[in-house]
Design a protein that fits this description.
Strand 3, helix 2 and strand 4 form a beta-alpha-beta unit. With 291 residues, this protein is α+β, with helices and mostly antiparallel strands. The longest helix is centred in the N-terminal third of the chain and has 13 residues. It folds into 3 domains: 89 residues, Rossmann fold; 103 residues, ATP-grasp fold, B domain (D-amino Acid Aminotransferase, Chain A, domain 1, 2-Layer Sandwich), CATH 3.30.470.20; 64 residues, ATP-grasp fold, A domain (Dna Ligase, domain 1, 2-Layer Sandwich). It has a 5-stranded antiparallel β-sheet with strand order 11-10-9-12-13. 27% of the residues lie in helices and 26% in strands.
Length: 291
């Protein structure tokens, strides 16, 4: 049996994970999987043939240390998935700017540092939207993410200014289709399409994550969305073991990229009976790819 570590966090209390569904299919292929917190300091990473970044949903709270841990893993001889250069690039959401420059449709975004309390109105003007979403450039699980509008009260505006003081932020127009149609998440294992889900927020919310009450359902996306996901992967400088492509419909009717998750996306194995087995086969084949 070859040893594989699924990188996680100290506690998953309050989160939803189904990664364990892949353990038995991997065992059938000769892999013994162990969940290991990325915060542990007593791990001999060289004993693992593969280390797969999975439920490290607190990494954004200490991204520098997280990347240092990944560097140690990468230098130990273990095969890190996804590759370290790709993770470094994907850790900052400025990767969206790179993908846009490569011709991919991306939700319009304004980038900045330390927004002022009076800056929301200016951002609405710049994005041509009555409502915007503002969040950190390094973030996960909708942490420090705000939906605000031109008529936002001064208290919330002051809170945003304080939260993002000396921090990089990104602002996007609030995409109304998320509320009714939802956000489409497409999953690719070893570069091949696997399955898809649609995520919609609970009433009176805009966050689609389960931890915030979002509803997740399996869907069969149209071929155009699957092709768009493949275009996103083709624009990368490295191949991926896993990728989640989050797409939303813009007011004009076209779909655009909201996020390309290459570090710790929920893979929703439970939403498709064959997904965990496809992932296991992709991981087994991944080990034969040149680094």
């Amino acid at each position: 049996m070859r040893a594989c570590a699924f990188l996680t966090m100290d506690s998953l209390q309050g989160f939803v994970s189904d990664d364990e569904l892949a353990w038995e299919p991997l065992r059938e292929l000769g892999w013994e999987v162990t969940a290991v917190s990325w915060r542990r300091r007593d791990v001999d990473w060289s004993r693992f043939a593969a280390v797969v970044i999975r439920t490290t949903w607190d990494y954004h709270l200490d991204a520098d240390t997280f990347l240092q841990v990944l560097e140690s893993i990468d230098g130990s001889g273990a095969r890190l998935a996804n590759p370290l250069p790709l993770v470094r690039w994907n850790a900052k959401k400025t990767y969206l700017r790179d993908l846009s420059s490569r011709g991919l449709p991306v939700v319009p975004t304004v980038w900045g540092v330390s927004p002022s309390a009076g800056g929301i109105h200016r951002l609405c003007d710049e994005l041509g939207s009555e409502e915007i979403v503002i969040k950190p450039v390094i973030s996960a699980t909708a942490h420090d993410t705000y939906r605000v509008g031109r008529r936002q009260g001064p208290d919330v505006a002051a809170e945003i200014a304080a939260v993002f003081s000396e921090r990089e932020y990104m602002a996007q127009p609030f995409v109304a289709s998320i509320v009714d149609e939802g956000e489409h998440s497409l999953f690719y294992f070893g570069g091949e399409y696997s399955h898809a889900v649609r995520k919609t927020p609970k009433p009176e919310d805009f966050r689609v994550q389960e931890e915030h009450g979002g509803l997740i359902v399996p869907v069969g996306p149209p071929a155009g969305l699957i092709a768009l996901g493949r275009r996103c992967l083709a624009a990368l400088d490295h191949s991926t073991l896993y990728a989640r492509v989050d797409l939303v419909r813009l007011p004009a009717g076209d779909y655009a990229l909201m996020e390309l998750e290459l570090i710790e996306p929920s893979l929703y194995f439970r939403m498709d009976s064959g997904a965990a087995r496809r992932f296991a086969r992709a991981l087994d084949a991944w080990m034969d790819h040149p680094r």
